[in-house]
């Protein structure tokens, strides 16, 4: 026989396809797919080097697969149950994760709503300060006039009160000193409590001293002038009463000496 009449060997893929079909009893159908009849397929298999060894390998693999597939039904049932349980647990984990995300989202939304409400209220308060002023005015607080008036009436507190101008205050102080604070022998006798009231306004004492107030003041009080609180002191000097009025920040408002 010459080479021209010898069957052509199969490729590896063709060989495996036809050998597998032959082991399954379907060689004729597989040969038809390659355009061969059954006998031509067998001749080409025989002409292919290593075809017999490859047949044995495929047969062994097929037998091993058949043994692996013969698993007891109880084993398959356990495997299916484990698979179902694992699927249920994974579903529960996903559901809990979704619930946590929803809860976090709700908490964040609630916090944002609270912050927005606070911002709106703050904006309203800034845009309408009269409302907050009128609301706070309803609370019982001490007024400047109540703070300005000395707590107990005495000759030293004669200046306490409200005056239209500084000159009216100084006249009232000077008259009070002449009328109520001079003793019968013509010398001033300080009334009790003058020193303690002086201590209450001690931070302005250096300014009073600088402006000519020496010795113990015969009047050391506070008052309102045109609605503004002031400090006032009076000193008895030789043949005169010196009256000094300072603002609450110790600035000079008026200074006058009235002769007796």
* Ends distance: 166 Å
β content, as a range? 5-15%
As laid out across the biggest beta sheet, the strand order is 1-2-3-4-5
Distinct helical segment count: 10
- What is the string of SSEs from the N terminus onward? HHHHHHHEHHHEEEE
* Apparent shape: rod-shaped
- Share of helical residues: 55-70%
Can you give the mean pLDDT? Answer: 77
Uncertain parts: 130-159, 188-200
Rounded to the nearest angstrom, the radius of gyration is 58 Å
Count of structural domains = 2
> What structural class is derived from the secondary structure elements?
alpha+beta
Main sheet: strands, sense, barrel: 5 strands, mixed
Count of distinct strands: 5
Would you write up a description of this structure?
The protein is α+β, with helices and mostly antiparallel strands and 260 residues long. The protein folds into 2 domains: 3-69; 144-259, no CATH class. Helix content is 56%, strand content 13%. It is built from 10 helices and 5 strands, in the order αααααααβαααββββ. The protein has helices at residues 12-23, 27-33, 38-47, 51-69, 73-127, 129-137, 144-148, 166-181, 194-200, 205-210; strands spanning 162-163, 219-225, 228-237, 240-247, 252-259. A 5-stranded mixed sheet has the order 1-2-3-4-5. A hairpin with a 2-residue loop joins strand 3 and strand 4. Helix 1 (12-23) packs antiparallel against helix 2 and helix 1 (12-23) crosses helix 4 (51-69). The longest helix has 55 residues, at 73-127. The radius of gyration is 58 Å and the shape is rod-shaped.
Spell out the blueprint of helices and strands.
Elements: H1 12-23, H2 27-33, H3 38-47, H4 51-69, H5 73-127, H6 129-137, H7 144-148, E1 162-163, H8 166-181, H9 194-200, H10 205-210, E2 219-225, E3 228-237, E4 240-247, E5 252-259
Parallel strand pairs: 1-2
Antiparallel strand pairs: 2-3, 3-4, 4-5
